[in-house]
User: What shape does this take?
Amino acid sequence: MDFAYSPEEEAFRQEVRAFLKQELREPAEGEDAWEVRRAFIKKLAAKGWLTLAWPKEWGGQGASHMMQLAYNEAVAYQEAPANDIGSDRVGPTIMLYGTEEQKRRYLPPIIAGEAVWCQGFSEPGAGSDLASLEMRAVEDGDEFVINGSKIWTSFAHKADAIILLARTDPDAPKHRGISYFLVDMDTPGITVRPLVDMLGRHQFNEVFFEDVRVSRDTLLGEMNRGWYIATTTLDFERSGIQRVIGSMRTYDMLADYARQTKRNGSPLAEHPLVRHKLADLKIEFEVGRLLSYRVAWMQSQGLVPNYEASVSKMYGSELAQRLANAGVRIIGLGGQLAPGSPWAPLAGRFETLYIAASALTVAAGTSEIQRNIIASRGLGLPRG
Assistant: This one.
């Protein structure tokens, strides 16, 4: 395994860094943040970077997986508002399982950075055990009638369309009676209700479906085989380097703070406990980076990472929590001050991270689920 970037890949990474340095502005708040996010994504689309690794036949650049990794690493470290589920999981899933008509309809707006997608998987009673979902889609001629609800649907209030899992055969074993749909959010019968998180942000939503009629051509792949398509979507979601590298910049800021801040006449970084904790975290971040490189390297070799993606996702989520805990302890009482406080060290970054990180081991599949995948698919351990 050679995880080093080639000269071409390294040159591209530097090009991305220069672009980000020129284009990134101070973070916006509220509605302005959404407008800034979408404007930036359109700039990425204009550069051809939003769908960098997509096949050329569908409007991508046909870049290698390692080139995509170089791009993702640069973007994540600078915390650019570049996350777009349309390009990183919806589009690739449609390319694998969609009809030619579905590809022609859905892919071009994603490539242009115009389409906003959300993901309708989790339900109030089906999160970690997603296959126990109860949303129903009942055939009625050339249509399906959908009833039920989804929860924790990020940006559903902004989305144009939703990828949706619904049960189409209630008598089949739970993994085999699920179908996958592509549904426009302006379809009659869909209601979105906001869920405000602990930081006061409105990103999550509940989405209710009441006698929502969709045509048969919204079905992605085979009927009752949606679970297996969904696992592909989830692998795309879990396999990125962003979780590790996004937190690495925060780690670097903490290390600089410890070097520059004095307690009892000497820099915090010279205190043995602080120095050892920072060293441990640095090692952990390098391990996390290599786990992400491993996934990309496997893809570049034509291999399909599965449990390897779960290893990377679980490790990155838990590492962010360890970083948040260490940062608040190292900074001290000031680490509890929120952004906006004039006395908050690092502009309140660690107060925000400490609260937000609590959800990281739940989102995109809990750590318990990831460990089950690693145990069964990676180590071949028996169930039960």
Remarks:
- The chain has three domains: 7-83, 118-223, 239-378.
- The beta strands are 117-120, 136-140, 143-150, 161-167, 178-184, 190-196, 202-215, 219-220, 262-263, 266-267.
- The chain has a mean pLDDT of 90.
- The CA atoms of residues 295 and 305 lie 6 Å apart.
